Amino acid sequence: MAVLGINQILIRIKEEALVENLGSRELENPEGVGIDFRLGALFQITKGGAFIEGDSEEGLGRRKGVKTKVVASYQQPAISQKTVILKPGQYYLAQTLETVNTPHDLMPVVYPRTSLFRAGILMLNSKTDPGYKGKLTFGMVNLSPFPVKLQMGARICNIVFFKIDGETVAYRGQHQGGRVTPSKVEQQV
Q1: How far apart are CA 103 and CA 156, in angstroms?
Q2: What average pLDDT is seen over the chain?
Q3: Fewer CB within 10 A of the terminal residue: the chain, N end or C end?
Q4: CB neighbours of 91 closer than 8 A, spacing ≥ 6?
């Protein structure tokens, strides 16, 4: 696998809508090898009860997520954005402002911006499978003993696109489209 250069990323954004709702800074003055995504919404868990079953002879396992509420979200136009305070030890789900439309030959990998962990914020993230379309959702927890202010629209992660050599199977999971969490019991796909 090779990493896509910024020039190729920008071409694919313009020609294929690889990323939607990208900020002007990233379109006009990107740096490095990836592009930064911004904080679009922050969710707090309000009720537990999550479970994930294993597959059995009867078929794929079931699962259930947690219930969440929106703490804050990015508001258009981008004149003034809400600031939230991430309390020490508190866990959140963060969703990007941008939407990714992953083609079958690329695999986006998410890296937290160093400004997060320098402030004590741990971001839990993963790769994104080919065929996934939607906003990205991550776990975020303040590991520091101090509150941290975070403004909606702040750049929180950098996405690097890996070029896949060989066949892929398109993502067909239930988070397609950017769903934050399954709040009802459902069969895995």
Answers
A1: 23
A2: 93
A3: C
A4: 45, 139, 140, 141
